[in-house]
Amino acid sequence: MDLEELHYDLIVTVVPKGSAEKALRASREAGAEGGTILYGRGAGIHERRTILGVPIEPEKEILLTVVPKALSDKVLGGIVDAVHLDAPATGIAFVVGLDKVAGICHQGSWPEEGRPAT
Question: How many other β-carbons are positioned within 10 Å of the β-carbon of residue 68?
């Protein structure tokens, strides 16, 4: 297998604070090797809340997961099931195709004859 044949997707999952760990566990169970959790604030239509008349912005967690294209559907399905993304106001996940990826040198990611020297 040539390295050019290794194609990846980025699964972006945006969920309420406290849900990203559950999504990460589900993605790993579905075959992903890991993920990165970032923190942010949201402003969706279901999130207009106030405290004493002052609008608040709900805290979010963003899970970034790079997976081989062959695993994208399985990993996305696991995430959707784990954090109930099919219900309103539970978050969103989407897949972005990646043209180029650097730094994926995990065991199993490289064919034996293509493994870089360490």
Answer: 16
Contacts of 92 (CB under 8 A, 6+ apart): 13, 14, 85
CA atoms of 32 and 29, how far apart (whole Å): 7
Instruction: Give the residue carrying structure tokens 């279901």.
Output: 46
Which domains does the chain show, CATH number per domain?
Answer: 3-101 (3.30.70.120)
- Tell me the pTM: 0.76
- 51 strand-pairing partners: 54
HSE-CB of 97 using CA atoms within 13 angstroms: 4
- The amino acid present at 2, given as its one-letter code, is D
Q: Give per-residue pLDDT as tens, 43-67.
A: 655 556 666 766 666 789 999 999 9
Question: How far out from the chain centre does Cα 110 lie?
Answer: 22
**Strand, helix or coil for residue 7:** coil
